[in-house]
Amino acid sequence: MILINVISLFLLFYLKKSSGTQEFPAQLKRYFNYGMIAAGVLIGIAIIDLPPQILFQLLSFVLVGGIVYLILFTPELESQKTMAITPLPIVGVELLKYLIETISPSIYNTLENYLNAAGFFALIWAVTMWLNHRKQMKEIEIERIFLKEQERQLKATAEQKSQLETLVAERTSEILKQKEELQDALDHLQSTQEQLIQQEKLASLGQLTAGIAHEIKNPLNFVNNFSELSVDFLEEIGEEMAKISDSKEKENILELLEDVKSNLVKIRHHGSRADSIVKSMLMHSRGGTGTMDPTDLNALIKEYSNLAFHGMRANPNPINVDIQLDLDESLPIIHLNAEDFSRVILNLVKNAFDAMRDKITALGNDYKAKIQIQTKDQGDHILIKVEDNGPGVPDEIRDKLLMPFFTTKKGTEGTGLGLSITHDIIKSHEGKLTIESKVGEFTRFSILLPKVKLGEKST
Amino acid sequence: MKILFVDDEKDVEALFRQKFRKEIKSGEIELAFAFSGKEALNVLGDENPPKFVYVFSDINMPGMSGLELLDQIKIRFPNIQVSMISAYGDSENYDRAMNSGAKGFFTKPVDFERLKKEIAEMVKNQ
Fold first, then answer.
1. Could you list the residue ranges that cross the membrane (chain A) (predicted)?
2. Residue of A214, A222, A233 lying closest to B11 (CB–CB)
3. Segment A423-443 mean pLDDT
4. Residue A404 preceded by cis peptide, ω within 30
5. Which CATH number fits domain A291-459: 3.40.190.10, 1.10.10.10, 3.30.565.10, 3.40.190.80?
6. Is A209 or B14 the better-scoring residue by pLDDT?
């Protein structure tokens, strides 16, 4: 019976070892350990021939049967199934021997030779099966390692792939970013180019304006001088007429002369109006002289808001605008660079016109465009407010408004310099410019000018 | 006292004659007009020595400019006073004129009061 238990021990030992890298469940391992102990004990009992032999022999069969059962019906041992078949003939022959011996020892004696032969064949079978099984197991193992290697390679490939993908994504976003930057730079270049062209045009327009203004100035001087002279002469004529005795004809002549005189006064008046326009044209085309002269700010605002309005009306796309002036009459005369500061008023008012024109286009005639210009004496400072009820300035671009070359106007309509120059001029007057706005409702430019500038204090 | 005005605008003659009507009538001054630099030099050169005391010249004229005329007069008739009258009152023209020996510089539109004062002073010094 030692053979059966040795087989049991061997099977268990082999099974336990076969787990390899994959761990068997603890339950199964426990079975193996107990089984091995049981087999060991049974071997020991068999050696010392402890009675009752029949019971222990039966237990040996039960143990080996249990092991075979375990192999056949445990999913984890699926690959070891051939192991169950290997010892079956030996166990079968031994079981037969045991049964016959137990039931009838006499028959056993007769059949002993045959049974021994069968045992021998069963042993050969078992060894063959065992070797076969070993070979199979090795193949399976190789296949397993191969599969594992393949899996590993697959995993590595997948990892590399994902790494490459991240890299590609990174590069793509980098390239996209570069493209965007290039596009921005290109846009910037294009707008700069447009602005340069615009500035060039403006510069030549300025020269042209100056030329025209000069050409007009000469004939205008004659108009003014001759009309002035004629008024003087009429005064003289009047003095001479007094010496002539009254008559109906004299009365008629005097009446006519009075009309001529009033006509001449009108010519003189409109001539001087034209003269002041020509002068301001010349002033603008010449550029600032940089001197701060005592200036009546209210008068300057009146003149230039009016000039901006008429300029707008004379240009394409005129709009109807209600200009409300709320000027503080108590405003003192302050030192200003009138030429520069007139540009501030012109720019702010013109910007308002352009913004409100967009709103008129969008909303139609229900919208009534309105500009309020206010001055206020605030003690140390003078406040100038220019407020329109145009489309307003979104928060995102409010900070950019004062940047040179920033413009919301399409194409070549704006140079993007207006507000930037305005800001520079205000700064040169030591003033502050603040912008408040609510989209769809209003935009308010507030200028705070010190009455006395630091530069003046020191001198 | 003879005064010569030089300007390419012909109407200047009528204007100045009317403006100085009284002075001319009283014989205080005598006005002459030339419409180019060349003509002015001819007028001045016709009499030797010329009786003209004062020349008022425009600067921007076709042909010889007022400043060139000024130089010529200062070379040929150093005793004659010259003042400039120009629409371009920029410092460049002013400096150039004063450095060339001009007596005064008037900008257009002419301030006749100032001009009359200038001439009256000249008459007094005669």
1. 31-48, 55-73, 114-131
2. A222
3. 89
4. no
5. 3.30.565.10
6. B14
